[in-house]
Amino acid sequence: MTNRGADADAVDRETESQWEGLPAGIRTQVDGYVLQDGSFQAIRLVWEAGRAQGVGLYEAQKIVHLRYLHFGDRVARTPDSPLDLDSLAALARGIRARVVAIEAVWDGDTVHDWFVRLLAVTDEPAGEKCLATIYWGTAVRALDGADEGALHPSAAAATRAGGDLAAHLGVPFHFASPDTPDDEAPRWRP
Question: Where are the domains of the chain?
Answer without folding.
Answer: 2-74, 85-174
